[in-house]
Amino acid sequence: MTLPLRSVLEKSLLSGALFCVLSVFSLAGCAEVERAYPPERPVEPPVGMNHRSWGAAIFREMGCAGCHNVGGVDEAGGTMLGLVGKTRRLEGGGEVVADREYITRSILDPSAEVVLGRPNVMPSYRGRLGPQELEALVDFIVSLR
Ligand code: HEC
User: 63 C-alpha to center of ligand 1: Å?
Assistant: First the structure.
């Protein structure tokens, strides 16, 4: 009778230990330096989606639509419609023409260039999107003309 009880105890101790080891690992994961491109992100659109609809889906899923409109309404973060080619005046002086690189920088490092008159509240998406996702997202924004 004592033997099964012992093995049950041993098993639960073992899984407890395993749990601790895993938690330590995940905590260490949190402390890791942020990478621009997490390797575990998808590299192609989900089945049934093309490149553009993938970009649109990422725009919704990442919460961009909470602050940015794609139809021309000037919300909290401004509209994405017709952004490419526009000259943006920046907080602290200076101007930049919105191109692919500017849009990419705006997503990865939003506080680096803050649009004049807008609050510096956009979160950085560095470390949250894979390179292919970022490309699909930027292509989607560029396509909004
Ligand atoms: C909490 C609100 C918020 C969220 C969420 C947000 N943004 Fe922004 N975004 C802003 C604000 C405010 C600005 C203007 C200030 C600045 O330049 O940082 C901005 C600026 C931008 C710009 C430059 C716009 C311009 O007019 O020149 C781009 C491009 C952009 N965001 C894309 C995105 C994308 C793509 C996402 C999702 C991955 C996103 N934003 C999520 C608030 C937000």
Answer: 10
Token pair of 74, please? 């000037």
115 in any annotated domain: yes
Residue 46 lies in a domain: no
Query: Is pLDDT of 1 > 60?
Result: no
| CATH (domain of 66) | 1.10.760.10
C-alpha separations of 110 from 39, 46, 114 in Å = 22, 27, 7
pTM: 0.80
Is the pLDDT at 94 greater than 90? The verdict is yes
* Phi, psi angles (nearest 5°) of residue 93: 95, 160
Q: What is the pLDDT of residues 10-24, one digit of tens each?
A: 666 556 555 544 554
- The residue nearest atom 18 of ligand 1, judged by CA position, is 114
Query: Does 72 lie in the same domain as 133?
Result: yes
